[in-house]
């Protein structure tokens, strides 16, 4: 596990603890926005990690929406 | 005037799409990639009746094709009837395959979007995204039209399922039957086109069922009966003409597929070209050149696609009516992206486990098929996001809908710019049939006799092929794509004898007009062809023929017939179909052996008045020892064909019953 993974996991744990799905989604979008220039400048490792975690954040948000009470 | 303004977005999207697909509206052949070219004369000889034994698949010696018999029958029957009606191949391929693909794709993706959201203005963008994303364009460019048509219909199937599964509990029994039968028919059609796409669509439907749960405790069994059971029965029965032989051949239904390369884990890893950032961004790994194995780095602008798709989650949080739909589609998008990356990170071993152990997953050596799920999700989520963004911007800054629409269109055009400016290859590029291939086809047609034609190093798409004159591909029959190895095998005099016995009369070195054969480091190198010709010129058992232009054609001095005798007796035959031959034997002596030079299969049987004998292998051909002497007739028959015959009866009865029931139910509903 690299330092980037650790940072992202900590971010996820904090957001889940706060139970604020809006922040989880916004963080995922933020990750993708940051990944954009990283891919452009071929900083692949961090960029890939950002995409993985963005997807994970979106997945968690989707699950939340699916199990949200009407 | 209002109607015109309402239709303006559709007109803009159609005009935009025309820029990409304009070659499909020309009079040039579209043969490229997997898509073939058929001469008028050969298409008139196609068998409209389904034949489970195909004489020129898998190298040119034939094999059983139950797993694609539905698609193959559709291809052959439509080509035959339209060519008999006087249409040439250029019109046939457009009328039956390419234009329906466009029409169905547009309509079904629009239908899918409207099945989820009642939003008008941005709904055509769903069609734009579905038809012109990089995965769809690479599929269409590569000529994989069976997969493409299944792809085109799949959103309609998903949309119909969503509507039906949600309305099911409110419908009367008669209405439920009507919807159920129609839905089953849709699934049956998609199953005939491509089993893998059907599997993926069924995965989506299954996920929708368990995640969204469009039923209550009371309506669960009703849901199960109408939404799953009846359609499943219809899929099997309507497709009985190929599902029956597939089941009958079960242990060796895929014998004709070269196994070693297909189902090994090494091949799964090799074919996992797409990385997660590609699949998540809906970027096909071979975009835009579509050269096998050539994968480019992520074009970073494609990351805007998932941003647009998943920003819908923010809007979904506040949308009391549609939050579950947004949740499901977002889940689907991530799920599809995860599978489409194959064995790549993250957690590539999950795909390996699924491939090894999950039923049916062995069909997905090529993981890019799972892009379909990403496309389905994003083609609905992105227009939904744009709609909500436009609501927000309109409220805050008075930004009009058309502004958002045009901005997105410009962004999309920049994203797929290679398609817009006509730089895509394959079916999007103008091709012509080289005149030397037309001349060769005329020569073969003029002979009216059986023989095989060997293409070295591989079969070329404009090569004439028919049941009477199957084409062999040297790389398949010699089990190597290395030209030096092929040449050394051809230099062996034993090979000449074997090819003669296989009925080969001509050896052809293709000209490769589409520059896809003679490649060095993925670049066309004509010196490979020139050297090959020089080597083959020196083979003593091949006579070079003149008058074929740039095409190098060689003739073997001798060749055997499709059926020949090892011994004293003589053979003459009448072909009933590719699965049945009437053989007349004369002067048969004890110990004579009848040889049939299609690929060996124990399911080939020789039937005479007293018994039935299974084929015995003779140099990978079929053979029978003849115990009876004298003159007599026998039938040589491919046993599993009888399952096609039984299945066709079942399919026909099912089709008639469905039609009658649908008409009756429809009338009852109107009362």
Task: Give the structure's gist in a few sentences.
The complex is a heterodimer of chains A (70) and B (671). Chain A is mainly α and 70 residues long.
What's the multimeric state?
Answer: heterodimer
Instruction: Please provide the count of β strands of chain A.
Output: 0
What separation lies between the terminal Cα atoms of chain B? 38 Å
Which geometry of chain B do the CA atoms define? globular
In DSSP terms (H or I, runs of 4 or more residues), the helix count of chain A works out at 3
Side by side, the strands of the main sheet of chain B go 4-3-5-9-8
Cα end-to-end separation of chain A? 39 Å
Sequence stretches where pLDDT stays below 50 over 5 or more residues of chain A: none
* DSSP strand count of chain B: 18
Describe the structure.
- The complex is a heterodimer of chains A (70) and B (671).
- Chain A has three helices and no strands.
- Chain A is mainly alpha-helical and 70 residues long.
- Chain A is elongated.
- The model of chain A has no long low-confidence stretch (mean pLDDT 90).
- Chain B is of the alpha+beta class and 671 residues long.
- A five-stranded mixed beta sheet of chain B has the order 4-3-5-9-8.
- Chain B has 27 helices and 18 strands.
- In chain B, a hairpin with a 2-residue loop joins β16 and β17.
- The mean pLDDT of chain B is 91.
- In chain B, α4 packs across α5 and α5 runs antiparallel to α19.
- The interface between A and B is medium-sized, with 30 and 33 residues.
Q: How are the SSEs placed, and which strands pair?
A:
The complex is a heterodimer of chains A (70) and B (671).
Chain A: H1 3-18, H2 21-40, H3 44-66
Helix pairs in contact in A: 1-3, 2-3
Chain B: H1 2-21, H2 40-44, E1 53-54, E2 63-64, H3 69-84, H4 89-116, H5 123-132, H6 134-141, H7 145-167, H8 173-193, H9 195-212, H10 220-238, H11 240-248, H12 259-262, H13 265-271, H14 276-280, H15 304-310, H16 312-318, H17 323-340, H18 348-357, H19 371-397, H20 401-415, H21 417-420, H22 435-447, E3 452-455, E4 471-473, H23 474-477, H24 483-491, H25 493-501, E5 504-509, E6 519-520, E7 523-524, H26 526-537, E8 542-544, E9 552-556, E10 563-566, E11 570-577, E12 580-588, E13 593-599, E14 604-607, E15 612-614, E16 616-618, E17 621-625, E18 630-638, H27 641-670
Parallel strand pairs in B: 3-4, 3-5
Antiparallel strand pairs in B: 1-2, 5-9, 6-7, 8-9, 10-13, 11-12, 12-18, 13-17, 14-15, 14-18, 16-17
């Amino acid at each position: 596990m690299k330092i980037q993974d650790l940072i992202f996991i900590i971010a996820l744990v904090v957001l889940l603890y706060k139970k604020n799905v809006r922040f989880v989604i916004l963080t995922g979008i933020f990750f993708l926005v940051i990944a954009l220039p990283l891919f452009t400048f071929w900083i692949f490792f961090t960029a890939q990690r950002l995409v993985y975690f963005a997807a994970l954040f979106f997945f968690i948000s989707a699950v939340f929406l699916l199990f949200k009470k009407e | 005037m209002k109607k015109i303004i309402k239709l303006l977005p559709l007109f803009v999207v159609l005009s935009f799409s025309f820029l990409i697909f304009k070659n499909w509206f020309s009079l040039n052949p579209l043969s490229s990639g997997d898509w073939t070219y058929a001469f008028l004369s050969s298409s008139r000889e196609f068998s409209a009746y389904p034949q489970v034994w195909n004489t020129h698949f898998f190298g040119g010696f034939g094999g059983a094709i139950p797993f694609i018999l539905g698609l193959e029958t559709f291809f052959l029957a439509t080509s035959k009837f339209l060519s008999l009606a006087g249409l040439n191949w250029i019109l046939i391929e457009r009328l039956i395959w390419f234009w329906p693909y466009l029409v169905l794709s547009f309509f079904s993706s629009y239908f899918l979007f409207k099945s989820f959201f009642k939003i008008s203005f941005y709904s055509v963008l769903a069609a734009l995204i579905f038809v012109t994303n990089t995965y769809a364009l690479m599929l269409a460019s590569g000529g994989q039209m069976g997969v493409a048509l299944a792809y085109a219909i799949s959103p309609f199937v998903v949309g119909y399922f969503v509507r039906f599964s949600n309305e099911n509990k409110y419908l009367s029994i008669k209405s439920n039957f009507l919807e159920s039968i129609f839905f089953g028919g849709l699934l049956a059609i998609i199953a005939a086109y491509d089993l893998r796409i059907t599997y993926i669509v069924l995965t989506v439907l299954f996920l929708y069922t368990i995640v969204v749960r469009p039923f209550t405790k009371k309506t669960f069994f009703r849901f199960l009966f109408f939404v799953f059971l009846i359609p499943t029965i219809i899929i099997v029965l309507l497709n009985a003409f190929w599902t029956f032989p597939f089941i009958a051949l079960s242990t060796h239904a895929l014998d004709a597929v070269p196994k070693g390369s297909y189902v090994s884990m090494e091949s799964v890893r090799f074919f996992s070209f797409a990385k997660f950032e590609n699949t998540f961004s809906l970027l096909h790994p071979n975009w835009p050149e579509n050269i096998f194995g050539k994968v480019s780095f992520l074009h970073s602008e494609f990351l805007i696609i998932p941003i647009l798709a998943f920003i819908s989650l923010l809007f979904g949080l506040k949308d009391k009516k549609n939050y579950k739909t947004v949740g499901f589609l977002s889940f689907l998008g991530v799920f599809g992206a995860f599978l489409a990356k194959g064995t790549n990170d993250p957690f590539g071993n999950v795909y390996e486990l699924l491939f090894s152990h999950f039923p049916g997953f062995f069909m997905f050596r090529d993981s890019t098929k799972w892009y379909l799920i990403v496309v389905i999700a994003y083609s609905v989520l992105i227009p939904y996001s744009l709609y909500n963004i436009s609501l927000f911007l309109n409220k805050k800054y008075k930004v009009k809908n058309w502004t958002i629409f045009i901005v997105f269109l410009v962004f999309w055009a920049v994203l797929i710019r290679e398609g817009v400016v006509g730089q895509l290859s394959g079916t999007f590029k103008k091709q012509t049939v080289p005149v030397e291939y037309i001349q060769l086809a005329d020569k073969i047609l003029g002979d009216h006799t059986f023989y095989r034609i060997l293409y070295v190093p591989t079969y070329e798409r404009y090569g004439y092929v028919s049941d009477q004159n199957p084409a062999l591909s040297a790389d398949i029959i010699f089990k190597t794509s290395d030209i030096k190895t092929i040449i050394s095998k051809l230099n062996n005099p034993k090979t000449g004898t074997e090819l003669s016995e296989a009925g080969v009369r001509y050896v052809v070195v293709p000209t490769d007009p589409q520059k896809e054969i003679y490649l060095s480091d993925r670049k066309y190198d004509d010196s490979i062809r020139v050297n090959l010709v020089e080597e083959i010129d020196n083979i003593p058992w091949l006579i070079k023929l003149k008058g074929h232009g740039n095409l190098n054609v060689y003739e073997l001095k001798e060749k055997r017939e499709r059926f020949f005798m090892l011994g004293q007796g003589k053979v003459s035959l009448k072909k009933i179909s590719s699965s049945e031959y009437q053989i007349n034997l004369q002067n048969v002596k004890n110990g004579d052996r009848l040889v049939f030079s299609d690929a060996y299969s124990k399911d080939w049987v020789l039937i005479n008045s007293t018994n039935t004998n299974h084929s015995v292998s003779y140099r990978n051909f079929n053979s029978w020892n003849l115990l009876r002497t004298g003159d007599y007739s026998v039938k040589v028959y491919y046993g599993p064909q009888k399952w096609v015959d039984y299945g066709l009866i079942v399919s026909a009865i099912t089709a008639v019953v469905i039609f009658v029931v649908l008409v009756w139910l429809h009338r009852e509903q109107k009362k």
